Give the backbone structure.
Amino acid sequence: MSAAKNAAKSAAKSAAKSRVLYATVLFSVTLLAQAEINLAAQLPVAPDVKVGKLANGLTYYIKKNAKPEQKLELRLVVKAGSILEDDDQRGLAHFTEHMAFNGSTHFKRHELVSYLQSIGVKFGADLNAYTSFDETVYMLPIPTAKKENVETGFKVLQDWAGGLSLNDADIDSERGIVLEEMRIGKGFGDRMNKVLMPKLFNGSRYADRLPIGQEETLKNFKPEAIKRFYKDWYRPDLMAVIVVGDIEPAEAEKLVQSHFGALKNPEQPRPRTYAPIPSRAYSESLVFLDKESPANMLYIRYAIEPYKEDTDFAGYRQKMVEGMVMSMLGQRMNELTQQAEPPFIQGGGAVAKVAHGYKSFSALAVLGKGGPQPAISALVQESERARQFGFTASELERIKKGMLRQVERLYNERDKSESAAFAAEFMRNFLVNESMPGIASEYAYTNELVPGITLEEVNAAARKLLPADQHKLVVYMGNDKAEQPAPKGEDLLAAVNAAEMVAVKAQAEKVYATSLMDKPPKAGAIVKETVNKALGLTELTLSNGVKVVLKPTDFKNDQVLMSAHRFGGQSLYGPKDMFNARYASAIVAQMGLLNYSPTDMQKILAGKTASSGASISNLSEGLRGGSGSNDVETMLQLAYLEFTQPRKDEALYASFIGKQREMARSSLLMPEAVFGDSLTAALYNDHPLVPRAPRVEDFDQIQLDRVMEIYKERFASAKGFTFFLVGSFEVARIKPLIATYLASLPVPAIPVDYKDQGIRPVKGVVKKDVFKGSEPKSRVALVFTGEAKYSDEAQMHMQAMLEVLNIKLIETLREKMAVIYGGQISGGLSKLPYGAYQIQAALPCAPENVDKVIAATMELIRRMQEEGPDPADLDKVKQNWITGHRKALRENGYWLSRLQGAALNGTDPASPFLKYEPRVAAIKPADLQAAARRYFNMQNYLQMVLYPEPK
């Protein structure tokens, strides 16, 4: 207890110092703003960030940050990716990333991952890396409770930077794993990229250097080729080390110098240049058809233009202006989807980075039943309307409100921001020279600059940004299931050219209300209040019987989360109403509240951070919402209106149903979708009430009037509801709002319990094969089910057992056998509607390796049952859990989900918070062995395998 008190006092002192520091910083930058910003001046670097460069050219960034506590985020960023590969190295930038975990100066193969797991760092979830065209990035979070962990973390980065072993045997062992990763990526997207990339990049080198590489190269490259890549490009003048978290900057700087100062550049370094992208010489079109395409899409790419990241205030301000243009254009495009017969299911246009030093305006649409013609007209003409006539004063005012509120929230959370977010910002500074003045400065700059941005200059920017008379690439990507036949290439260009010739009119100015409700409802009362001191909860009973649980926190400064639940849900409706009930909450959400559509609501709420959404799930109905600290009343108003004023709109209903029908046409074209749907059907014996992949005919069974009846049957009464609010609020201030908006909810008598619909999984051993897809890849699913009594302890034992199995799965099937790239065994216990468990293994692999994968997985399960886990593996799981739990205890979302989960399951709410670590510590290897014996019943499981279609 004394240690906890000391920690709390220390945290309070630290927070006080932080507030003083940030107040000082804000005061200084406010003075700068008040003195008028010199637009020609360079943006400064945030004063609390140390940016340095070693003598060998290595750049480093250091920032002390308190969230999460006792955690350090380390990054090694290398300005080297697949674009730098020689012809015999296609795929070896990515292969080098793999080899970083397979032996180095200080770690033998597999030692690194095992060590990091032992200190609570999970491979994949925490420890990770990626390779792109122009960079490779390694991410390493390190717990700082023990100083030696920090030292070892720097040693890991040092090895990645210059100490990879790259021995021939390890390279050959890794080939199969990388090839399996390539196999997973095969399919519609891979086939499309091979055709599309050369066109998108105008024949640039980028089209020939996809990071995954070429299969022939990966199978046959000589070790000398990857060693040459590592020697040429992993060098300090192309590297940055990023250190953010719970560490003193001076200590971090010494560690950087000691671990990276001795790295040397090659005597004759190869020049690091960026691939040019040539201008498009003429307009062209491309039609790509594939029977597995999950949707029909239209894409228009306009001219690719060089750009340079501006680092002065003028460029910073211009980014704001351009961001306003793109946001307003996006809102207009979104409004088009609200029509009874929208031109597309989803669409928009924006200026975006194409590659290093290049940007382009592009437009994209997911096509509806009208096909490409209405989408082309809408995309082209909406952009042309904005280019010719610009935007309205009210549109600009709403965007400004949103920008100012967004930066205010970031500023309010300045001392609660996660270290990983800062690390990502520093990465962008190193890679593309993005400015990083810090949120205190940006808050001052935004409040100074945004009000002065005029409608005239925004509209002038629109005329410059939005394309006219440019060479373009028009692409149709799709399948043969659309209502409209696929177009020919020349028809696409002709349609775009025709759309450009249509005269457009200016957008009409429209005035919207500035608040949701003219007056609040007549308030109810709080009739009972109890305090749970152990958990810091205030529990209220309202005059209408609704219950509210309040958990004020200081985890965030400007965040309040809300959820509410009550039993009932879709289980109260039979087969006749199945689809009406299933889609009721989604349809009502699409139609808005009061007399306002969803797009109207966005405009009315401009400048506010508040949301709430109702849902009807299988066994319950509920709400989920969130707001800023000053917008709690708006969030509660939304919740009140979802009970009392849902809106019926025939046009928006027709729009929703039409879009869903069109998406359903393609929902079962991808092999993985067919496999998942077949798995559900087999597992539940084709039970008619079990949700499956949507079919077009499903939507013929939905009627708007019945949807509204079902929604009102469940939400016209708040009887039996419990609300949870967690976040940055004061109980005394929020109670009057709760009395006004929640205690006033109507509570007529309705059923408030669920029905067990008798849905049960298949019994016995069932084995089925599914044949779908043209690529040589398979997927294995093993599903174990049964009845079991739920308890928190049983759930914990099962989860620990599965986590250990996953460690062994990677060690055996990936690292030793090289028959999978990734796979997982997951599962859990459930209490409702009856005590049960389900465990599923998902294992993608090659068709020829299916039997090996099944046999090896079953052997791992058998060993767990007969021998139990390796205690060292259990310790890794426990350490990771405790590390994650301590972080989660400072997160509003964790408290919200755990409190509601305890209420739904009828379990002790203190268990996830006060009893977690003792329960983790008490887990023994025998508990996992018992769980494996209890839940893996070899006489009761489903085995399903996906194979490619026979040729």
Residues 1-34 have pLDDT under 50 and may be disordered.
